[in-house]
Amino acid sequence: MQFQEAFTFPTPLSPETEASARELLRAQQMGQLDLLMGWVQQPERLGKLGGCAAELQSLLSEAFELVERAPALAREFLEHWSTTVLLGRLLGPAAVGPGLIQCLMGNLASLLIVQRLRGEVTHGEAFFVTPRTLYCLPRGERLDVRGPGEGRVVWHFSGAECLLSDEGHAGPGLRIPLPLTGEAPVSIQPLPWSETWNVPVLDDSEMLGITGRREQAGIPDDGSTGTWRPMPLLRSTEEAFHILRELWPEVLDWARVLLPALVDMGGPENRSVRCSSSYGAGTPVFLTRVAHGLEHAEDLVHELQHERMYLLLDSRAFGRWDDSRPEFVSAYRTDPRPLRGVHLGLHSFLAVNRLRLRALDRPEFKQREWRFQLLKSHRCNLLSFRTLLDFERPTPEGRVLLAQMAQALSEQHPLIERVADADMDQAFDAWMKQHFSRVAGSGPVVNDAETYMDWREAAVLAARYTQHAGGAA
Fold first, then answer.
1. Are 163 and 171 in contact (CB under 8 A)?
2. Average pLDDT value for residue range 310-315
3. What residue spans define the domains of the chain?
4. What is the pLDDT of residue 213?
5. Which InterPro entries does this chain map to (predicted)?
6. How many Cβ atoms from other residues are within 10 Å of residue 182's Cβ?
7. CA 311 from chain center: how many Å?
8. Whole-angstrom Cα distance, residue 172 to residue 63?
């Protein structure tokens, strides 16, 4: 398997290996785009878009017209991560509300609109119907249409002119000469940008069709009042960048390949509610706000591990990777999960714990809670490994990958267990028993026997698996 040595943890990327990783990501994204384009031909999928189905077909026709006349501009549209993400949301199985469909369509069309507004495309005619605010993610820009009216905007491009009008309005509309000048009622402004990560920082997750933003009302960013003081995302992720550059710079190598944007999900109501998410290789990372940059360093390692696993893993290595039955207790979730979720959790938290071990001398780890979280995630990893050992059906290649994770788990075990005291042991066991009970109460699970809470035995099994699989390899 390509990049097998980088499977468990990020390794340094030379210019040549970085180019190979980028090509692998591009191949995956183009394969997904081909699949989505095939879905456009299925009436039942387009039917869920209602009246916007014709708009999507028109938009894609414009993109394919560019393939013949301006291939570089077509590539900018077709190969950008946002095209795959937005099309995936429009055509995927999950229901999308009419208003959100219109926003997604507008953001998808925004690059084609910008190309014409700036005079980069002048041939033929084109029509678009969009909201008044658009996010042109390929260019890192936001478009706003000023002027009367509150409904959607109709763009009619013809040669060196754009006719701008309100949807359903019978008036003559406004003719705008192209390329756009500063006097036009259309403004194009850059999105907020992280100079350290070299990506945009998006403050509205719904522009990508993914809800989950948490309101920030009543949560101060300046530390003036209260005890819960999350930082603005630009600041916390900059701190995270510098922490990773000092402790684990290889993570930043992979972030250059895989991280296209950061999305601010807002501030949770208290520090115990902390979320991060991503949606496949090369997709943005969504983050709630935190009070310490190290927390976002952990979150970014966690999400980049998910993205690396989806990029690097040949899923045929694990016989149950595509088994969607939710029948396992996962230490990381409160609902029964398929075995894939156990894989993803172990793979990501092994890396988070490696970062935490490198950060043990930082001031945060003088607080007992930080050390408890290290112990907690390690024992959750032991549960996950034992579950995989009992229920996964790996190929010989899969056994090698599991052995890599088992070796990492064995190496971390004595280093992490030594931070625990009797109170931590007791607190963790109480938490885990409650967690098992909660998950098992949500549906039947198959890994809830007491043996799955024998941490010493799980560590021994990990060490033995490393020796056995290593010898077999």
1. no
2. 95
3. 313-472
4. 55
5. AKG_HExxH (IPR026337)
6. 5
7. 13
8. 28
Tokens standing for residue 371: 């050390």
State both tokens at 187.
Answer: 């403004």
Place 219 in a pLDDT band, splitting at 50, 70 and 90.
very low
State how far the Cα of 304 lies from the Cα of 285, in Å rounded to an integer: 8
Amino acid at 232: P
Confidence (pLDDT) at 120: 95
In this prediction, residues 139-148 reach a mean pLDDT of 90
Residue 278 to residue 368: CA distance in whole angstroms: 29
Alpha carbons 84 and 30: distance in angstroms, whole number: 8
User: What's CA 394's distance to the chain center, in Å?
Assistant: 27
Q: For tokens 């998410």, what's the residue?
A: 277
- Residue 261 backbone phi and psi in degrees, to 5: -170, 155
Place of tokens 């609109």: 113
Whether 317 contacts 401, CB under 8 Å: yes
Spatial distance between the Cα atoms of 389 and 406, rounded to a whole number of angstroms = 10
SS (H, E, C) 25-78: HHHHHHHHHHHHHHHHCCHHHHHCCCCHHHHHHHHHHHHHHHHHHCHHHHHHHH
What distance in Å separates the CA atoms of residue 122 and residue 100, rounded to the nearest whole number? Answer: 30
In residues, how long is the chain?
A: 473
Chain Cα centroid distance, residue 113: 27
330-340 burial string, b = 16+ CB within 10 Å, else e? bbbbeebbbbb
Structure tokens that stand for 95 in this block: 């229901």
Cα 457–Cα 458–Cα 459 angle in degrees, nearest 5? 90
User: Measuring CA to CA, how many Å separate 321 from each of 7, 110, 172, 329, 336?
Assistant: 16, 37, 58, 16, 15
Residue 156 CB partners (closer than 8 Å, separation 6+): 125, 126, 127, 162, 163, 164, 165, 173
Which pLDDT score is estimated for 383?
95
Give the containing element (helix H, strand E) for 165: strand 161-166
10-43 per-position pLDDT tens digit:
999 999 999 999 999 999 999 999 999 999 888 8
Omega before residue 172 within 30° of 0, cis: no
